Amino acid sequence: MANIKVLVAKPGLDGHDRGAKVVARALRDAGFEVIYTGIRLTPEQIAEAALQDDVQVVALSLLSGAHNTLFPKVVELLKEKGLNDVLVIGGGVIPDADIPGLKAAGIAEVFTPGTPTSKIVECINANVK
Predict the structure, then answer these.
(1) Measuring CA to CA, which residue among 45, 39, 55 is closest to residue 6?
(2) Distance (Å, rounded) from C-alpha 118 to C-alpha 9?
(3) How far is the C-alpha of 106 from the C-alpha of 49, rounded, in Å?
(4) Closest C-alpha among 114, 100, 32, 51 to residue 71
(5) How confident is the model at residue 1 (pLDDT cuts 50, 70, 90)?
(6) What is the pLDDT of residues 59-103, one digit of tens each?
(7) Is residue 41 a contact partner of residue 15, using CB atoms and an 8 Å limit?
(8) Distance between CA 56 and CA 40 in Å, rounded?
(9) Among 15-19, 28-32, 58-62, 66-70, whose mean pLDDT is lowest?
(10) Is residue 110's pLDDT more than 70?
(11) Residue 60 pairs with which residues in a beta bridge?
(12) What does the alpha-carbon distance between residue 123 and residue 17 come to, in Å, rounded to a whole number?
């Protein structure tokens, strides 16, 4: 079976990428093929990278507070590109009150600070066939 490809991306103006790098390394160590885009990408750039790299998972990381705008925008753009079967997960400093809205907008799971990386690995393994 081919490796699961994961795009780890930082949408918006958030320049803090330590968490994203920790997650990217943990996913790679778990056997996934990981593409890390770096910081300050637009939702359009992230969706295009997902298309070009033929990924099964887009893992978004955001600390700036703009998750309610940027995460759903990425989901919308992925759908516009026909990537309806891509698992989109998010993480970062996200208030519990915002999580139901993000899930309603198509984010499969939201991981907050302190979540063991093993939970992210489990989520991907459980949702990508």
Answers:
(1) 55
(2) 19
(3) 19
(4) 100
(5) very low
(6) 999 999 999 999 999 999 999 999 999 999 999 999 999 999 999
(7) no
(8) 22
(9) 15-19
(10) yes
(11) 9, 90
(12) 21
Tokens 């309603």 correspond to: 104
The per-residue pLDDT of the chain, averaged, comes to 96
Using N-to-C axis directions, what is the helix angle for 18-29 and 117-127, rounded to 10°? Answer: 60
Cα gap 30→126, rounded to integer Å: 14
Reference 71, options 7, 10, 2, 126; nearest CA is 10
Confidence band, pLDDT 50/70/90 cuts, at residue 129:
confident
**CA–CA separation, 5 vs 26, rounded Å?**
13
- Tokens representing residue 53 in the block: 């790299």
Q: Where are the beta strands (DSSP E) in 31-123?
A: 33-36, 57-62, 87-92, 109-111
Alpha-carbon distance of 58 to 8, in angstroms, equals 6
Predicted structure pTM score: 0.96
Domains recognised in the chain with CATH numbers:
5-127 (3.40.50.280)
Q: What angle do CA 64, 17, 95 make, to 5 degrees?
A: 35
